[in-house]
Amino acid sequence: MSDALVYVAQNEIYRFVYQALIAAGVREEVAELTAKGLWSTSLRGVDSHGVRLLVHYVHELRGGVVNPNPNFVWQQTAASTGTLDADHSFGHASGMIAMRHAIELAQEAGTGFVSVRNSTHCGAMAYFGLEAAAHDMIGLAFTHATPKVQSPGATQPFFGTNPICVAAPMQNEAPFSFDSAISQFSFNKVHQYREDGLPLPENIASDENGQMTTDAHAAFQLLPIGIYKGFGMAMMVDMFSGLLSGMPTGDDVSSMFDGNFSHRRFIGHFFGAFKISAFIDVDDFKQQLQMNADKIRKQARLDENIPVMVPGDPQKITEAQRRKDGIPVKPFDIERFQTLASELGIEPLNTSYN
Amino acid sequence: MSDALVYVAQNEIYRFVYQALIAAGVREEVAELTAKGLWSTSLRGVDSHGVRLLVHYVHELRGGVVNPNPNFVWQQTAASTGTLDADHSFGHASGMIAMRHAIELAQEAGTGFVSVRNSTHCGAMAYFGLEAAAHDMIGLAFTHATPKVQSPGATQPFFGTNPICVAAPMQNEAPFSFDSAISQFSFNKVHQYREDGLPLPENIASDENGQMTTDAHAAFQLLPIGIYKGFGMAMMVDMFSGLLSGMPTGDDVSSMFDGNFSHRRFIGHFFGAFKISAFIDVDDFKQQLQMNADKIRKQARLDENIPVMVPGDPQKITEAQRRKDGIPVKPFDIERFQTLASELGIEPLNTSYN
């Protein structure tokens, strides 16, 4: 089989993921929100958190990590706050439902914040942040993750790559979004370097004893950005995601990839929405954010051939391309998808786009 | 004059700063909140943002940067939100007043957020975050700052070192606090390296053309932690601090140290308080945060002689020392303080502590 990427029409990707989840027993609303999360993440080029995870998620459904028919329990606790028990649903669905509650709270109270408990992996956080931005709000999204980030001065990890996401509407283009783990590198990238037989950049990973390494195979944990600074941010995200939700925190957060598909994960998330008009005219805000982005893009370049970009720009560029050219999928994943299609009795993925 | 640090009793430092501000014409409440900010910051060992700034602040009062008798205008805009016009007060005072409003909002609405406009330099953000923690809330504090951080791929800065602060109560000790600029280094540290004739560490600063440098004298701008990651965080902080308050943003933020003491600064801040009990039992939260901190401190060490610390630990250790031994002040600053005392007609700083 060739190594060339296969381009699949973006709506065909959505169709396939949605039908696979339905065929695997997932309730309609949950399947829709989860498929939208995976599809939109791939569309934006964040492939590590996109549709390639589908097969993993189906394993999680079969093993009992994820509940296909969750009983979401929403409880408003004050004018701007509430909690959502996700009943072990897909994190994409529980996260989106939580963010929608946050937006609803913010419409009345100016801001809204929702703590989610008993959830699972929720994919890329921008999916949720952008939902708030679409409602003229600043969106905030946190989740904790598998412990993989070395504590400064220690030999071992304590926190995960605990991402921070913020999104906000702009005047003339799709919303601003910043969605970033607090490590310089992701473990998915380490896996890629392993496959490609390449050495890692310096100062991004360490081995089992906490010694810096550029050997991708020896890499056991990741370094936080700014060392103790990124570590502090990881602790902040864990506090909002884990401590406020009452889930296991720090190095007690369960692992996503330990090969055990039978245990619940007990992941916590935290979502927030700030209604911009509670602070300032929303058109002024959008205009000024647009002006800042435009000014940044026009800053004098270090290298004439490399544009200065605003966070989210690479994703916007990729989305425009992929809407036109389709979403590239690795042959390895195509194969796994077609096996899954036959197992689940759904139409195979149509790969005849180009 | 010897170069040896002079240890001054911590309460004498407070007395001196407070009386100097009063003698310079600052209204009592504003002087108290500002003096407390400077004093507590020095007490915690964050000397760059502590009492050494007093002389600079008096220059700002005399020149008209800072209004000694501000008319604060508070407006609640929704159940969880409000705005404060600081009328060019000291940022320490406007920030603390804003945070107290945020706490009050959060008591009722679960969370509270206050956007501050027409403010000035507000010192170290932990001062505000810790106020929320003292009320069993998670405190959040943002401010934008003088543009000094190189945009990735550009030759010039756009954003400032825009700090992020979060604080939260713990079970058996003073609150957790994380207070960090989004650059690895501060410009105050660059100044120290210049004075000491030392080369800078690698990859923390660049020259006027955006080229990396370890020459402290050539250093013109700072690199963000994690490059585009810290840059995104700077943009987030500027969004909350500047865009929501309607103040100049990005590279239009005024400079603190341009030697011009006659212009207003038009700085914006953003403060938030999350009532922990709106999400989870507050004792459970404190206990779990304590357990995590204790576990982190007990992690296996890379170097047996260097403890693994939680954000805020160095400040807690320093505060305990300084409450006992006094606050160390440079002879250069003692000299400036005594000149100021005679100009303002107040008791000179009593340096006979030891």
Alpha-carbon distance between the termini of chain A? 18 Å
Largest interface: A-B, 73 and 73 residues
CATH domain class of the largest domain in chain A: Alpha Beta
Count of runs of 4 or more consecutive helical residues of chain A: 10
CATH topology of the largest domain in chain A: Ribosomal Protein S8, Chain: A, domain 1
What is the CATH architecture annotation of the largest domain in chain A?
2-Layer Sandwich
Strand content of chain A: 15-25%
The share of residues in helices of chain A is 25-40%
Average pLDDT metric of chain A? 96
The major beta sheet of chain A can be summarized as: 7 strands, mixed
Overview of the structural elements:
The structure is a homodimer of 354-residue chains. With 354 residues, chain A is α+β, with helices and mostly antiparallel strands. Chain A has three domains: 92 residues, Hypothetical Oxidoreductase Yiak, Chain: A, domain 1 (Orthogonal Bundle); 196 residues, Malate/L-lactate/L-sulpholactate dehydrogenase, NADPH binding domain (Ribosomal Protein S8, Chain: A, domain 1); 37 residues, Wheat Germ Agglutinin (Isolectin 2), domain 1 (2-Layer Sandwich). In chain A, 38% of the residues lie in helices and 17% in strands. Chain A contains ten helices and 13 strands. In chain A, helix 1 packs antiparallel against helix 2, helix 2 packs across helix 4 and helix 4 runs parallel beside helix 5. Chains A and B meet through strand 4, strand 8, strand 9, helix 7 and helix 8 of A and strand 4, strand 8, strand 9, helix 7 and helix 8 of B.
